[in-house]
Amino acid sequence: MEKVFRDPVHDYITVTHPVIAALIDTAEFQRLRRIKQLGTSSFTFHGAEHTRFSHCLGVYHIAKRITDYFSLNFPLEWNPDENLLTQCAALLHDVGHGAYSHTFEGLFGTDHEAVTREIITSPQTEVNAILRQVSADFPEKVASVISHEYPNPQVVQLISSQIDADRMDYLLRDAYFTGAVYGKFDLTWILRVIVPTENGIAFKYSGMHAVEDYIVSRYQMYMQVYFHASSRSMEVLLQKLLARAKALYKKYPEYFAMSSPCLVPFFREEHRLEDYLRLDDGVMNTYFQIWMTHEDPILADLARAYVNRHLLKSIKFNRDTVSLDDLSILTQLVEKAGYDPDYYTGVHSNYDLPYDFYRPSSQKPRTEIKILQKDGALTELSVLSPLIKSLTGTIHGNSRFYFPKEMMENPEFTKHIQNDTFFDKEERDESSKL
Question: Looking at residue 428, what is its pLDDT?
Fold first, then answer.
């Protein structure tokens, strides 16, 4: 059998294995059609309407290309028996993502990776039933790849490392749908120079510049797309909207039971997997439109702001020198203007480490990228590349304080802002001395 998906990034994605085809047809995987890949980013980049479904198919496609290539060219270094496991893990790696998952997780304490493992291992899911047809322990094996506990590092690194099938697909896919040309890199060449090694994967020296391009592309996508101030403004609005609804549930339980029943288990903090799987972006957006007419002015206003894209304004601040107490002067002015600061101000921080070598003492040590030289030596990438060395271990991003844009008309408020940045008292005093 053969099933073909026409994909704007990879052209044709071909499925030939019946297990992969059956997994795609499960209810849990089909739900991903209703979950946006980039959450609130479509409010900034209007083309970014693509879904977790298309991304997961893309990751499967890249993983299949790699495992087929390994099986053909590296019979001693790669075990073809790992092909199906790697492809299943690639396909299912994001199956636990929920509606607006990152924002939702922060408020309701869910964990999409834990949900992914639960979907794979729970006897109640269609995904689990398909995987058990391979073998009784196959679901646990797939889950262990996603949790980085599977004993073969080659398989784990193909799904999760500093250059893996997941990242390679989402960079190309997100660049395509946002129109960001700097997110592109030479996938074809990278897949020609990838090699399996005893302790994972590496890349031939001839492909080092393609790997460099990939890392720089990833850095640019984070700075220009994923960390965009407007997308983050919508995230803050969404978080405040859901927080207000959660706070009001005790006062209006019947209203929320009627208007937004799928959220009630989360308001009660007693949700199960089946409750989680009922939610998707469309369900949430419908609830938001209903809340626009609620008698609570804050809930209604936040719902209208989110649905109609009325952004909060923001300024940057240095998290190393500016505390939340320092920002309280702005919060107080927002409250004085008639806004509840609990719902109309917020702090949003985004930081990323573009690349790093292995640091065993760090809290989350990374698997470094290895370059295979002509003499067979494996060398860490930043040792060979001055470009990557300049990015290694460096953290990039910013923290922003969000507030109603009307505050920009208040001179008492704007006197604390210079060049889109919070101008704290110490800086003003130093400036006045010059």
Answer: 55
Interval 206-230: pLDDT, tens = 999 999 999 999 999 999 999 999 9
Predicted local confidence at residue 182, as pLDDT: 85
| Contact present, 233 and 350 (Cβ < 8 Å) | no
* Gyration radius of the chain's alpha carbons: 24
Per-residue buried b or exposed e for 101-116, using 16+ beta carbons within 10 Å of the residue's own CB: bebbbebbebebeebb
**Is residue 122 within 8 Å of 108, Cβ to Cβ?**
no
DSSP 281-333: HHHHHHHHHHHTT-SSHHHHHHHHHHHTT-PPEEEEE-TTT--HHHHHHHHHH
Amino acid of residue 18: P
Q: Is the pTM of this model over 0.70?
A: yes
Residues in the chain, pLDDT under 50:
432-434
The pair of structure tokens assigned to 252 is: 């209006």
pLDDT of amino acid 434: 47
d(CA 236, CA 226): 14
What distance in Å separates the CA atoms of residue 261 and residue 394, rounded to the nearest whole number?
Answer: 45
| DSSP secondary structure letters along 384-398 | H-HHHHHHBT--EEE
* Three-state secondary-structure class, residue 348: strand
Structure tokens at 264: 């009630």
* Nearest partner of 344 among 294, 398, 301, 290, judged by Cα: 301
List Cβ<8 Å contacts ≥24 apart for 300-306.
302/237, 302/240, 302/241, 302/244, 302/343, 303/241, 305/237, 306/234, 306/237, 306/238, 306/241
- How many whole angstroms separate alpha carbon 47 and alpha carbon 263? 28
Max intra-chain CA distance, the chain: 77
Sequence-separated (6 or more) residues with CB below 8 Å from residue 121: 128, 139, 140, 143
Q: Rounded CA gap, 335 and 108, in Å?
A: 26
Tokens 């965009």 belong to residue: 228
